From TrEMBL:
It comes from Datura stramonium. Keywords: Membrane, Transmembrane, Transmembrane helix. It comes from the Eukaryota. PANTHER family: STEROL DESATURASE. Residues 130-259 form the Fatty acid hydroxylase domain. It is found in: Membrane. The keyword Membrane applies. The chain crosses the membrane at residues 43-62, 122-143. Belongs to the sterol desaturase family. It holds the Pfam family FA_hydroxylase. This is Fatty acid hydroxylase domain-containing protein.
């Protein structure tokens, strides 16, 4: 068992060498405890992903395609985006504690994670991913909904994110502009799922970081009309009504629990 758990340690050590080695002298990070190296690597990776994806996204939709996807009065001000960046950067060190904690639990053998796809086979791997995503979708839906329904949670945590409540205050940079505990709570289903079913370690870590890109996407206010994806058109309604479209990747949970509101139907009603 210890030999197998060492595979996870070797993998995270490999990631540490790639990321930390690219930005810092080894004499700075080499003596640090393994768990702290993991946190530092997650922090650097999270910051880079946030800024690179956010700037590229904003440059494309607000400048290269100006007035193509959004009318001029729906483009957020630079001040609004800087405010979102400030909130996200204050929370980022805390966000990175979650993947670091999940890595520690995996390396300690507390979860059902497996290291190599060949350990279970490709068919089982794909089935596990599908079930994992269903668990994550269900968990994030209810976590998000309770952050609205339980008034102290909304007042002290989730309201930080909902000051962005219309098109000209929403941007890809709002995707991570949460109170730190709010952002962690909404990502917790990713970790809970590790105790419920076997999951490939690298895929789990990748999906955690893909969250940053996904949340940037659903805050750009552009309705892509890709069924059954819970895209920005749906999420913009969430920011304006506060009572609909709590889902994350798809519309299924909102459809099942009666909170779905369709942006196309909304446009028809307005006409």
């Amino acid at each position: 068992m210890d030999d197998y758990l060492n595979l996870f340690v070797e993998e995270t050590s490999f990631y540490n060498r790639i990321v930390l080695g690219a930005f810092l002298p080894e004499s700075w990070w080499g003596p640090l405890p393994h768990w702290f190296q993991g946190w530092l690597r997650n922090y650097i990776g999270g910051v880079l992903l946030y800024f690179v994806s956010g700037f590229l996204w904003c440059f494309y939709i607000y400048y290269l395609k100006r007035n193509v996807y959004l009318p001029k009065d729906a483009i957020p001000s630079n001040r609004a985006m800087l405010l979102q960046i400030g909130v996200a950067m204050k929370a980022m060190p805390w966000y990175c504690a979650l993947p670091s904690l999940s890595e520690y639990m995996i390396e300690s053998g507390w979860t059902k994670c497996f290291s190599r796809i060949n350990d279970v086979g490709w068919l089982s791997y794909l089935v596990y991913i599908a079930v994992y995503l269903v668990i994550v979708e269900f968990g994030i839906y209810w976590m998000h909904r309770e952050l609205h329904d339980i008034k102290p949670l909304y007042k002290y945590l989730h309201a930080t994110h909902h000051i962005y409540n219309k098109q000209n205050t929403l941007s890809p940079f709002a995707g991570l502009a949460f109170h730190p505990l709010d952002g962690i709570l909404q990502a917790v289903p990713h970790v809970v799922a590790l105790f419920l079913l076997p999951m490939h370690f690298t895929t789990h870590i990748a999906l955690l970081f893909i969250e940053a890109i996904w949340t940037a996407n659903i805050h750009d206010c552009i309705h892509a009309k890709v069924w059954p994806v819970m895209g920005a058109g749906y999420h913009t309604i969430h920011h304006t009504t506060y009572r609909h479209n709590y889902g994350h990747y798809t519309i299924w949970m909102d459809w099942m629990f009666g909170t779905l509101r369709d942006p196309v139907e909304d446009e028809v009603k307005k006409m």
